[in-house]
Specification:
- The protein contains 13 helices and six strands.
- The protein is of the alpha+beta class and 325 residues long.
- The protein has a four-stranded antiparallel beta sheet with strand order 3-4-5-6. A two-stranded antiparallel ribbon has the order 1-2.
- A hairpin with a 2-residue loop joins strand 3 (187-201) and strand 4 (204-217).
- Helix 5 (85-94) crosses helix 6 (108-122).
- The radius of gyration is 26 Å and the shape is elongated.
- The relative contact order is 0.10.
Length: 325
C-alpha cells in the first residue's frame, strides 16, 4: 500500500496514541510517545524482564526492527509512503475498521486499500494541512542548522556555545575556544545546509547533516594527484609523502607521521594536516602559497542532547560512504 505521506502520518499518529493507551500508559507519555522505544514494548515479568516478543511483533506482525518509526520520519520528506499491506491491515483492524464479509476474499493489497479508505474518511487530511513535528525534533533541527549558520557568518562564539561542555572538552579542542575558532579560519561559506532523519535514542537525538563546504585550500608540495596514483606507483607515493612531511616540518608542523594515510586522499587534506600538526590558521597565509577555493560535500551524523530544556550538540562524526561502481 502506498498512501500519501500526509495521510500515512495521520495513520501513524492515531495508531501510536491508541498503542500507548493500551500498552504503555504506565510510562510517562512525554518520554515515550515520540521515541522508537515505544514500539519495543513487550510483556514483562515481576522482575521487569521482557517475556517473549515485543507486542508490535506478536499482535501486529511487524517484525522489522524500527520499521514504523522509520516510515514516519521519512514521511516528512516525501509525497508518498509505502507500507507492507499485511502490517496496514493488522493495524487498521486493531483500530476498529472492517470490510463487508463479501469483500473478505479479496487479496491483501485490495483489502488494505479498502480499509485505508475508511480510515481516510474518518480522519480526513487536507492537502494543505501540515503536521507539526514534535517540539524536541524541531529543536534538534534548529540547533544543528544554527550551529552551521553561525559558522557561515563567522559568529563562532555563538556556534561554540551550542556544544555541550563534554564535546568542548574532548581531545580535538580540550575546552579551548580559540582552538575551535582556528579550525574554521579557512571556511568561506557553508551552503545548502540540510538536517534530516532525526531520530530519538534516549537520552540522545541523532540526525544526519549535509552541506557544501567552500574553503580556501593552501597548496602543499607533493600533495596534488595522490588520489589518482595506482599500486604500481607505490614507490613514487612513498617519495611524495616524504616531500609532504618535509614541507610541513619545515613550516613548524609536527606529528605528521601520525596522520592517517586515508586523509591524504581527501580534497581538503591540507585542512586536516595543518590542524593536526599544530599549525595555526592565522599562520597559513605566511607559510603557504596563495590558496584556491574548493567546494567539498560533507555528510555527518550529529548527536544532540537536552540539558535543562535546551538542545546542545554532543558529537559530530563524518558518515563514511562507499561505492563499488
Amino acid at each position: 500500500m502506498r498512501p500519501k505521506s500526509l495521510a500515512f502520518r495521520k495513520f501513524y499518529e492515531v495508531f501510536r496514541e491508541q498503542f500507548y493507551i493500551d500498552y504503555c500508559s504506565e510510562k510517562p507519555r512525554e518520554e515515550i510517545i515520540h521515541s522508537p522505544e515505544l514500539w519495543e514494548t513487550g510483556k514483562f515479568d515481576k522482575n521487569n524482564r521482557i517475556i517473549g516478543k515485543p507486542i508490535l511483533v506478536e499482535k501486529f506482525g511487524v517484525n522489522k526492527h524500527g520499521y514504523l518509526y522509520r516510515l514516519y520520519r521519512n514521511a516528512f520528506n516525501s509525497h508518498y509512503t509505502t507500507i507492507k499491506d499485511v502490517y496496514a491491515i493488522n493495524i487498521l483492524e486493531y483500530l476498529g475498521f472492517r470490510i463487508a464479509d463479501v469483500e473478505n476474499e479479496v487479496d491483501e493489497a485490495r483489502k488494505a486499500d479498502l480499509l485505508f479508505k475508511q480510515f481516510e474518511a474518518k480522519y480526513p487530511v487536507a492537502e494543505t494541512e501540515q503536521f507539526d513535528e514534535p517540539e524536541e525534533i524541531r529543536a534538534v533541527r534548529n540547533t544543528v542548522r544554527e550551529f552551521y549558520e553561525f559558522i557561515t557568518v563567522k559568529q563562532l562564539k555563538q556556534a561554540w556555545n551550542l556544544l555541550t561542555p563534554e564535546f568542548q572538552n574532548r581531545e580535538i579542542w580540550e575546552g579551548n575556544y580559540e582552538r575551535f575558532a582556528d579550525g574554521y579560519v579557512t571556511t568561506r561559506a557553508l551552503r545548502n545546509i540540510a538536517v534530516f532523519n532525526v531520530e530519538q535514542k534516549n537520552p540522545y537525538y541523532i540526525c544526519k547533516l549535509f552541506y557544501e563546504d567552500e574553503m580556501a585550500i593552501y597548496p602543499v608540495k607533493g600533495l596534488n594527484g595522490l588520489e589518482d596514483m595506482t599500486v604500481d606507483e607505490l614507490d613514487e607515493f612513498i617519495r611524495r609523502v616524504g616531500i609532504i612531511r618535509k614541507d610541513i616540518e619545515s613550516k613548524g608542523g609536527n606529528s605528521f607521521d601520525k596522520v592517517p594515510l586515508n586523509k591524504l586522499f581527501n580534497p581538503a587534506a591540507i585542512e586536516y594536516i595543518w590542524y593536526e600538526c599544530g599549525l595555526t590558521g592565522e599562520s597559513l597565509s605566511k607559510l603557504f602559497p596563495k590558496p584556491k577555493p574548493v567546494v567539498v560535500w560533507r555528510l555527518y551524523e550529529c548527536t544532540c542532547i537536552f540539558i535543562s530544556g535546551k538542545c546542545y550538540i554532543n558529537d559530530i562524526s563524518p558518515v563514511k560512504t562507499y561505492s563499488i561502481r
